[in-house]
Amino acid sequence: MRSITLLSAALLCVLQSECSKTIPELKKEILDQILPKNENEIMIAPGNLTSDCTVVESTLYVLNIDDINENKGEISLRLYFRQYWKDYRLKYVQNSLFEYILINNEEAIWTPDTFFVNEKKGRSFEALRPNLLIRIFPDGSVIYSKKLSVTLECPMDFDKYPFDRQVCNLRLESYGNTIDNLKLKWKTESNPVGVYSENPVPVFQLQKFVSSYGMVELQKNYSFLAVDFYFSRGLSYSIYNIYLPSIVMVFISWLPFWINKKLITSRLLISMGALLSFIMILCRFSERQPQSQYSSSMLSFTATCASFLILSLVLSVLLHIFDKDVEDPIKIVESGKLNENGGKKMKLNILMKKLPCKESWLEFGARFIVPFVFGLFCVIYFVSWGALSADEPITVPMTKS
């Protein structure tokens, strides 16, 4: 009986001492028990100690797409990257006072050696304090979250510029652990990858992003995560700064064909002015046009417009040379310059004036055939390069996870 009383008193003292401890003190005691005591233990993955593969699940949330640099072929992202795994060495007795233990030292426990394969530049945010979160749960589950800014390589094809569509890839792999030791996969939830900003960049529109994971075969097999971002280019800038002005300049170059043929100076000034204005538009636009070693659709359009502008200038000169009005027959008679050959020319001229079509074939072609050919070119150009379907959703090929 006495022993039972002593045992109850001891148990009561223990309970009272436990209840008297604050939550920070309880968490400190747990951390002192579960955290590795030496660096060698930190470097070993949990699965390596039990001959099992460590499974690391991930989620990725893009806060903003800061920039898409077309000339350098890169994309800059700000994102939250989170990883989830279990480490049995970090198990502890659950306490009703708190759900998990929060630490902000990533060197205190083992963490996956994940890296961005196509990274060109990256940094973590450390204003005030490092933007890092590590939660340890009683069953040994770990949530590792970090805010990052990364610049990734994104090769681009401008063959169809400005109707081009680009695909930028984000790829993650384990740097040293093969798939036998560490397996990466997206967290089994509805949306493991998300983008917060609906319209990230002014030039491009993000239409879709597709996540996948699997195994890459190098000298050894490694696990990887991937996200493909599908972009379509906005056409408003190109339409208002190059297409419409170029078409207007070509139309202006046809005005001399409807002006009196004797006003050769006015006709040439209009043709030259349209050509010089087009060159100025082209020089201004080329500063923002991405550099490409391929012949883009924009190049074929501007080259064709320049050809029509030069053609209009040449036709204005030719019309002045070949369709110059001869001297008025009445004035010829009054001046007494009429001879036998002159009489025949006068009769021929009077006959030509009585014909229903006074314009020569050259002038007829300049007025009607050239505009028709240019209009036909514009229709074929915009249809063949996909301008009418530029805003349609991008068809994404099926990917195997």
From TrEMBL:
Transmembrane parts of this sequence: 240-259, 268-287, 299-322, 368-388
Signal sequence annotation: 1-19
Keywords: Cell membrane, Ion channel, Ion transport, Membrane, Signal, Transmembrane, Transmembrane helix, Transport
Organism superkingdom: Eukaryota
Domain Neurotransmitter-gated ion-channel ligand-binding: 31-210
Chief location bin: membrane
Membrane topology: Multi-pass membrane protein
GO terms under cellular component: plasma membrane
GO molecular function, one term: chloride channel activity
Family membership noted in the UniProt record: Belongs to the ligand-gated ion channel (TC 1.A.9) family.
Protein name, per record: Uncharacterized protein
